Amino acid sequence: MLPHQSSYTLLGVPVISGFTSRRTNKNENWTRRFSIIKNNHIYLFKSRREKKPEEEISLFGAEAERDRSGKLNKDFVVSLKPHQSLLSEDHLDLIYYFATDSEASITDWLVSFNQEIEAAESESKIFGTNIQVACSKRTDGLLVPEVVEQTIEALLDPELHYLEIEGLCQIAGETQQMESIKNRIDYGMVVDFSEIKDPHVIVGVLKLYFEQLKEPLFPIELYEEFQKCLKIQNNDNKLIAIKETLKKLPDENYDTLKYLLDFLLRVSTLNETNKMDVTKLSVIFGPTLIRQENTSSIENIESTSFQEELIRILIVNYEYLLFNDLDNEELDQNNFQSKSGIKTRVMAIHPYTAQGKYQISFTKGQIITVLKKDKSGWWYGQIDEETKGIFPSNYTTEITRLGQFNNISQETEYVSELTIDSARKSNQELSEKLNSFKQKSGVEGRNALEELLIEVLYEMKMLKIQLALERSERIKLEEKFIDLNKN
């Protein structure tokens, strides 16, 4: 079995308990154990007095049935086969056998096994349910299924450049691996998508989730209304109609659509490299996200054309359709400060190039004042008086809040230290010079320090640290530099 923390201490009433004899197809020796079924597991104790189970077996996705082979030297036996995704590679064929001393008792155990197996599936299942089910399992209030958030975050990792891979979203991932990941998620297990090295598998899991939704991302009751929107001839009026219809989506569907379309937009902007333009993405995701019931073959053809066209329009006009009132004069920093008057500032940890007219571009290290946060992960911010727009918050890190320090000097010193530290980490030459300075003294050390300060000033200028430059930090550093030369 895969190693995991014991779940025995979790609250839960035993479904059944008592002594059973236990063996496996790997070890033919029968051992008598006190057994308890609860919390979607069977727990085995050496005695009734033991507080910690000797062994626990997950029932997520397991199969239990009577064994009547007569080969086990026992008359009343239940076989239990754990799901393969929960087993190590060298135990994929593992089968447990549990025996009791009567027909009545073994029947009770079999019923209890199947009862708990069914309960385990209904409690943790994500695939094949409604999107509201997945969102309800979150504790952070984000109305996007974790599997959607985690797969997209893994694909957007700036260090891995997955979006540049040719055929992303089109090339199929390895089916067995995708099915294993799906089962692990459905059985309540944590999947770290950053450890999955095949981006096609990650995209495959994302598509599989939407394909298997019980109710499609676009609710069936809005299908005809979206169709009517696309029949409007005037493009501006068409977009207005689509935008108003999108507002009728349930909150979970709306936020998830926004999250997904942002990803598809980013993929499409790199189509010269990945060969995945808006048309191809619409063909792939249209029938997955938009479906209707009981259609004829002719209707299916018409439906496919409609599905692809709607997704295409949504990707191309993503910001206008899914970010409300971005051109509204009310989007001013004074209207989005908190009750305490404190505003959040973030520093870019990765460069970002705007993908649309409502977005802002920034370089690594640039400071952005946050004016509004959105649950989708897109925040509205300001770099200077003329540069405002939305940006992906996962490309930034919060550094401080205005009003947190007693004076401007403390603020600038904090940001300068943060910036210099960042520069040291990202610039190997600068780090080497710093180490060299630490080992020198006298004139040689002073010269090394001068060189280091020049390098720091250059890094700060290149990183465009607005606070440091605009609030006299540059003057302070230059004065220190002049004093050093005088000495």
TrEMBL record:
Residue stretches in coiled coil: 420-480
Domain named PH: residues: 13-118
SMART domains documented for this protein: PH, RhoGAP, SH3
UniProt xrefs under CDD domains: RhoGAP (cd00159), SH3 (cd00174)
Keywords: Coiled coil, GTPase activation, SH3 domain
Listed PANTHER family: RHO GTPASE ACTIVATING PROTEIN AT 16F, ISOFORM E-RELATED, RHO/RAC/CDC GTPASE-ACTIVATING PROTEIN
Domain Rho-GAP: 129-322
Annotated SH3 domain residues: 341-401
Species for this entry: Anaeramoeba flamelloides
UniProt name for this protein: Rho/rac/cdc gtpase-activating protein
UniProt cross-references to InterPro entries, sorted A to Z: PH-like_dom_sf, PH_domain, Rho-GAP, Rho_GTPase_activation_prot, RhoGAP_dom, SH3-like_dom_sf, SH3_domain
Pfam families recorded: PH (PF00169), RhoGAP (PF00620), SH3_1 (PF00018)
